[in-house]
Amino acid sequence: MDSRAAAAEGMRSAIEYWSQFVARSISHRLDTEKFENYVRLVHDQHPLPPALVADFFLRPQPSNDNSLDPRIPPYLQVLTRLGYVDAPSILKALYKYSSLHAYAQQPNANEGKDKEKENEKSDDKEKDEKKQKITRWKSSYWAEEVLFYGITKSVVEGKAIRDSKTALEMTRIISKLMVLFTTAFAADMIEQLHTTQVRDEMESSRAALVALLLRMCENDILVGAVSKPIAKDVRKEMSAGLASFVPTLQLVPQITDKLEQFRTEILASSDPADKKKQATNAAMDELLDSAVGLDNFVVADIPISNTRTGLYIYLNAALIARPLLDDHALFSYMSNKYQGDIQSSAIDLILASFDILANAVFRNEGQKDAHLLRSFLINKVPILLYQLLPPGFPGTSAEFCITEALSHVDTSLFPTASLMFDESRNNNPYTESVREEFCAACVLHGLVQREHVERILGEISLSYEPSLQKHSKDKLVQDCLSDTEKIQGLVRELDKMDGNVGAVCQALVEVLRQSCHNKETMSLKVLCSQLAAKPQSLDVILLFEKLPNILEPLCQLLDNWRYEDDQEEYQPVYEEFGAVLLLVLAFTYRYNLNAVEIGIASPDSWVARIIGRGHIGRQCNELTQRENDHLNGWIHGLFDTEAGGLGDELMSSCPPQEFYLVVAPLFQSIVVAYTHGYLNDESLKGGIECEYHCQLDDFILTRQTLWIPSYCHLLFRRFDSWQTISGSTKKNKSPLSRFCNSSSSQVPFRGKQAQCFHP
């Protein structure tokens, strides 16, 4: 008796000491190093089993029962490393003090007598704990998530499960945790007990439990342990837990299939077949087949209810970044989705188009995307409706579909004319007048009668222009080819929201094609310059035309560009070539295109080479002799006042295609020369002003589109590949003379690289 009393007294003192130690460690915020030193001493003087140690650290403290202290997980890592706690002890404490019990107890109170009998069979320790009304955490989800993942890592590393006993202990407690999560989530679904934040935290904790469960199912020691005959009760608990837990998961099929396979193949195959149960099931199946006739039941097809969500996703994906809207592909998608229901497809097309613009405004992306999306709604959708429901089409009329769709459009976001004058509203410029402009475009295409617009809108339309007429593509093309001054006005019409933009885009592309075919480079220069100056206009054009139709003629023209035999002036040639190339580069850099996407098939294409390596700086030994000659000529033309500047002689010897391949090396040479003192500020300024005095506006702008990427490429080059300048320069020579006539030891390049700067 004395020994028992002494042991009990020692246990009480150890528990009290550990309790004080945990409280002081938390209050003093001990770092892990100090904690490790102290806990060694405490455990040596007052050793306790892992279950009690883990319980002390994971139970709510008198001063805090809201959530676990953030210092506890690092402390548990130290304790695990020292062997004072293990995975089963941590899982038991997590289960004991989990916040999920607060929700899981509610349905348990209404269970029948069978459940009460099972509770009576539980051990005395669990009865005592229930009677004592254990204080549990109010929010333990984040701690459970962290510790579940930590134990998962230990399982993967082979530290958590070292023998069969540990494996069975972990299996038993994991089974209880699965039942706990299942019951808590079921209670939430029925009574909506949790807020969105709490529900998200619970789902994160459950996801961590799933990760641990998957790793345990793959552990060889655990699989071997649960397959033994003595683990029959553990297998039963695990199988029941998985059967209720897995259906509540919304995971990828691979995960749920793996858990279900573990339950049905490993757990179920370990139990001997119950012949009596098999006989009963066979008799029941025979009775059902003979009496009910299950094979004779006819299951009616459930009608598929179409929504505009799929169409919204399709259109949003087609319009994001580079517009890739193909009319035939869209109609095929709508035909498959709506199974020939043209009325529903037309209504959903209108509503989905309004939804795309509304969501862009909600995401504060109006400044970037609203112009394109608004143009799609007003200029493109009426054309699509005209193809779906042409005037005179028997059956459903376009006017009915438009009226039905606009009745579901939110007027708080797309206000009517009267609401736009309401000073109490904060109207958005991207959604104002959209309803009226859409109706006006539908009137233009003959989908709606003019006198019915007020009835559709519910009030008088203020934005309708009676003088507005539908454009003809052929007439616009003839006007532009006969008078190039009309091209600028036509480009400006790309910004309009009147329903005529489709014809304008098709006319501009046709003008491009015919000008390229006839080599009308003057009109091409005007058109390409105007389009390149308005990047948003490129998005609008792609709503109505495919990219290869635009760029293929331009690339063929650039690749086949030649000087005429009787060519007298070369500066206009550079300007015209630069304007066309500028438009190609505008498309390329705006949509991150490569040569194949543009439609260039030949690897010898000049445009492909300019796009692929026109921005890459190359050393002189990487250039051909012809490129070195061009580079030398341009250096003298820009910076040697005695050489005559950028004259026809220089341009005639260097075709524009070849020039754009030496732009990056030229830029690199200028930067290096200025950095090392071969060019001073005046020389650099004079060379740049020389270009502007020659009025090569498009040529300069096109070159800058290659210089900027070239500069970025140059910044990332290894500067240690440049040889340090040595020696001294003669004072009686100009900077350009020193730059061009330096010996190889004075130029910041190696060997033959210096030769390109000799006159």
From TrEMBL:
It comes from the Eukaryota. GO terms for cellular component: mediator complex. GO terms for molecular function: transcription coregulator activity. It is found in: Nucleus. Keywords: Activator, Nucleus, Transcription, Transcription regulation. Residues 111-131 have a biased composition (Basic and acidic residues). Pfam families: Med5 (PF08689). Residues 106-131 are annotated as: Disordered. GO terms for biological process: regulation of transcription by RNA polymerase II. The keyword Transcription applies. The keyword Nucleus applies. Component of the Mediator complex. Belongs to the Mediator complex subunit 5 family. PANTHER family: MEDIATOR OF RNA POLYMERASE II TRANSCRIPTION SUBUNIT 5. Component of the Mediator complex, a coactivator involved in the regulated transcription of nearly all RNA polymerase II-dependent genes. Mediator functions as a bridge to convey information from gene-specific regulatory proteins to the basal RNA polymerase II transcription machinery. Mediator is recruited to promoters by direct interactions with regulatory proteins and serves as a scaffold for the assembly of a functional preinitiation complex with RNA polymerase II and the general transcription factors. This is Mediator of RNA polymerase II transcription subunit 5.
